[in-house]
């Protein structure tokens, strides 16, 4: 009988440790990891104050924008470029990192920037260039008796260019 009690105590201790370890591991796996904070740029209604904030969720972004810009509660976030309201968590998750947002308090509304023309926007990225190289060939004559000339010009990525001018003179000049 004593042997059975000692055996049950020896077996129960490792089993209880396994059960508690697996339960905590299951809780960690089910809880999942918290989303990583992403950077955003927020400004006030007249774009006079701009701040960068990091937030993993819409609720946290609202709280951080309110404290960074020292605005009265409640606030609404809209996209700075077109005034689209950011109201749901699912729409918030689709925003790219570094998106420019405008925080609006009660009675304020989004308005397009007053200055037109070239602007450095917060969420504007330079257009992606897809042209790798542009090559042009120009044939021309400097004199009616010449065979002709060829000008080759290559432009790489819209930035770097090089050209070569090949001149073919008349047969008399070639022989000399």
UniProtKB/TrEMBL annotation:
Tell me the keywords, alphabetical order: Apoptosis
The record's listing under InterPro entries reads:
CIDE-N_dom
Q: Is RNA-binding a UniProt keyword of this protein?
A: no
Q: For this entry, list what GO says about its biological process.
A: apoptotic process; regulation of apoptotic process
| Family matches, as Pfam families | CIDE-N
Per its UniProt record, what PROSITE patterns does this chain match? CIDE_N
Please indicate if the UniProt record lists Ion transport as a keyword: no
**Occurrences of domain CIDE-N (ranges):** 36-112
The record's PANTHER family line, in alphabetical order, gives:
CELL DEATH ACTIVATOR CIDE, LIPID TRANSFERASE CIDEC
Q: What is this protein called?
A: CIDEC protein
* Source species of the chain: Malurus elegans
């Amino acid at each position: 009988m004593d042997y059975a009690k000692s055996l049950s105590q020896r077996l129960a201790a490792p089993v209880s440790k396994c059960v508690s370890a697996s339960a905590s591991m299951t809780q960690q796996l089910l809880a999942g990891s918290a989303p990583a904070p992403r950077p955003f740029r927020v400004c006030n209604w007249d774009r006079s104050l701009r701040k960068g904030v990091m937030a993993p969720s819409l609720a946290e972004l609202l709280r951080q924008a309110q404290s960074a810009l020292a605005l009265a509660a409640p606030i609404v976030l809209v996209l700075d470029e077109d005034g689209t309201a950011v109201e749901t968590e699912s729409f918030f998750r689709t925003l790219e990192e570094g998106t420019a947002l405008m925080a609006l308090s009660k009675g304020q509304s989004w308005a397009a920037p007053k200055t037109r023309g070239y602007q450095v926007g917060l969420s504007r990225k330079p257009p992606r260039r897809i042209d790798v190289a542009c090559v042009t060939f120009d044939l021309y004559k400097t004199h009616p008796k010449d065979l002709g000339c060829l000008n080759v010009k290559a432009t790489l990525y819209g930035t770097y260019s090089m050209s070569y001018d090949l001149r073919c003179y008349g047969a008399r000049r070639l022989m000399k």
